[in-house]
Design goal:
Layout: E1 5-6, H1 16-22, H2 32-49, E2 55-59, H3 62-73, E3 79-84, H4 87-98, E4 102-107, H5 116-125, E5 129-135, E6 137-138, E7 143-144, H6 147-154, E8 160-164, H7 176-179, E9 183-187, E10 198-203, H8 205-213, H9 223-230, H10 243-259, H11 261-281, E11 297-301, H12 308-317, E12 321-322, E13 324-325, E14 334-338, H13 345-361, H14 370-379
Parallel strand pairs: 1-12, 3-4, 3-5, 5-8, 8-9
Antiparallel strand pairs: 2-10, 6-7, 9-10, 11-14, 13-14
Helix pairs in contact: 1-10, 2-10, 3-4, 5-6, 10-11, 11-14, 12-13, 13-14
The structure holds pyridoxal-5'-phosphate.
Length: 380
């Protein structure tokens, strides 16, 4: 079967309009035509981030944007607080360590969310912390952090507020300006439903002040270089960008704006709620604390006696639905359903049919159709 339905927390299904946009002729990246498309795309990006500040496109995946955020705003030897409740929170900390930043971990049990109080306490104890990193949607556990509430607390501190919205922007509620986020990063291949390979970043005035005071030890991801090139007429990127992915991002962001951010977020929340109900209807257990469960990915405990290889192998090879496995110590213990991007009841019906048939075939459940029945009820 070659038309596999991607129900992954990225990459997600790419709209044919976006694929068509990518096939346009490649132009000179130092010319007026590219400048025009870059301007339009970064302006759209700022609208989706909900910020009056400029956004920058980076040719690279979400991790490139995470590294850009960390390495340009905090100097080696300075302190950073990293909230770690999953793989991507941990990645922020590893990046900071790689750049010689003194990291302090705020460890959160995987499957639960950090509280604003925990952050305030950590900052009260360590006045010299220059920045904190928070992952909005911890894709490895299916947990959403309360970034709006954390933003309110962060107003009492000088530390920069760095937020990873790689798997939430365009799918869950993110308002960079309102939440007081200083540095926000995202990726192309998740809720924005563009192909993998592009990332974006936006910075507040305070964050730019930090950038100006930090001698960064990255070359390719140097934000001062990005700003200098972006300020040219026509605007450019410092090094050759993926022109084709810029077209793709442009079209994908137009689709986001056509749907409307509010509608898009509501659609993702509906899919998440329906997925959680369907998981329960199948008699399966959620991994994440339901009160903080993600709008874009649902992590489910693997039923007793079922291996990851037979479960996900069957949903993919027999029923054409690709699900994600667990990461790190969750490998084999959870599977994850990505419901981000172009997701409606149709994809969820197919997904829960595949999960139900697979688990019944493996002898783990009795009623193969309970998940599908639940989805149809959720969408009536
Ligand atoms: C929350 C989060 N942050 C960062 C990343 C890293 O993005 P990429 O794999 O595009 O480098 C991911 C990817 O899954 C993610 O889910």
């Amino acid at each position: 079967m070659d038309d596999i339905l991607l129900m992954l927390p990225g990459p997600t299904t790419v709209d044919p309009r976006v694929l068509a946009a990518m096939s346009k002729a490649v132009v000179n990246h130092r010319g007026a035509k590219y400048g025009e498309i870059l301007t339009e795309t970064t302006e759209l990006m700022s609208k989706v981030f909900q910020t009056p500040n400029k956004s920058y496109l980076l040719t690279g995946s979400g991790t490139a944007a995470m590294e850009t955020a960390v390495a340009n705003t905090v100097a080696p030897g300075e302190k950073m607080l990293n909230v770690v409740g999953g793989k991507f929170g941990e990645r922020f900390m590893k990046i900071a360590n790689t750049h010689g930043i003194e990291t302090q971990e705020l460890a959160v049990e995987w499957g639960t969310a950090v509280t604003p109080k925990q952050i305030a306490e950590a900052l009260d104890e360590n006045e010299d912390i220059k920045a904190i990193t928070v992952v909005h949607n911890e894709t490895s556990t299916g947990v959403a952090a309360p970034i709006e509430e954390i933003g309110k607390v962060m107003k009492n501190y000088d530390a920069l507020y760095i937020v990873d919205t790689v798997s939430s922007l365009g799918g869950d509620y993110v308002d960079v300006e309102k939440f007081g986020i200083d540095v926000c990063v995202t990726g192309s291949q998740k809720c924005l439903a563009a192909p993998p390979g592009m990332a974006a970043i936006t910075l507040s005035d305070d964050a730019w002040k930090a950038v100006d005071n930090v001698e960064t030890n990255t070359f390719y991801l140097d934000l001062k270089a990005a700003r200098k090139s972006g300020d040219k007429t026509p605007p450019e990127t410092p090094y050759t960008p993926s022109v084709s992915l810029t077209y793709a991002m442009n079209e994908a962001l137009k689709i986001v704006m056509e749907e409307g951010l509010e509608n898009r977020v509501a659609r993702h929340h509906k899919a998440a709620k329906a997925s959680v109900a369907a998981v329960k209807a199948l008699g399966l257990e959620l991994f994440a604390d339901e009160a903080v469960s993600s709008a874009t990915v649902t992590a489910v405990k693997m039923p007793e006696g079922v291996t990851d290889a037979e479960f996900r192998g069957t949903t993919r090879d027999k029923y054409g639905v690709e699900l994600a496995g667990g990461q790190d110590h969750l490998k084999g213990n959870v599977f994850r359903i990505g419901h981000m991007g172009c997701i409606s009841y149709k994809e969820l019906v197919q997904t829960f049919a595949a999960i139900g048939m697979t688990l019944k075939g493996l002898g783990a459940i009795e009623d193969a159709g309970a998940g599908v029945a639940s989805i149809t009820e959720s969408y009536l």
